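Known limitations

Files may contain more than one protein. Parsers should not assume a single record per file. Below, a two-record file is shown to illustrate correct handling: read the sequence, read the token line, then continue until end of file.
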Amino acid sequence: MFNLWWPADVQVLGKDIIRFHGVYWIALLMAAELPLPKQLLVHGWIKVNEQKMSKSLGNVVDPIALQTTYGVDPVRYYLMRYIPVNQDGDFSIESLERAIEKDLANDLGNLLKPHGCFG
């Protein structure tokens, strides 16, 4: 199974653990003569009310609840459009709902409906 999953094409890590994964982990892999990950993708924090999302702060957002309430594709759209990969991004339910209503329902919905895409 190890050979199936390693070496990683992309290793995804948070900006707060880059020292461990970018230096120590690489050194450990080299010492063990194991192949290195091909690329490191360092992402920013997802913040809620300008605070880092954290279990200890209790400000986490349940992805299952988001999917159940809004659906997978609208949540994916919002995260890809409004939360930058390599910077911090601020999440709120209000912003998610605004993006779904404005971008998807109004703009995209109005663009496609006259052309018969939705029956």
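...continuing to the second record:
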Amino acid sequence: MEAFDAARETLLKNRSQAYQDATLTFYNFDQPGAEISKGTQDKYWFQGMQGSLKAHYDCIKAYSEPDFTDDLKKIDVPTLVMHSEDDEGVPYHFTGARSARIIKNAQLKTYKGLSHGMAETHPDLINADLLAFFRS
């Protein structure tokens, strides 16, 4: 919870800088060998700045405080859980791995070295895996 409280404080203190800094973990740009795209960073910042500060502040509460276990147990359709084992912002062992264990008929697809923004940074890989799941 301390990390989420810090995120709220940072957002209130300097929202613009918060979104500039968030690109580092969202895309794993702070990792050795990561390719830093100024365009991708700018796009992420721009999207963040278009939203409501209150909505972003409240969003942190919405995804960090509730326990979604009972909701996940209700899912009864084939489900693909895609997650990077190296997601810095949403750690795999707390989210993707747990969700796949809880959801009935879940199929887990993990990726090494990708970021939370993997659908944007590796669309060919992610789209191919989505298509294979849909066809199955």
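Parsers that stop after the first record will miss the second one. For reference, the second record is described as follows. Strands lie at 79-84, 106-111.
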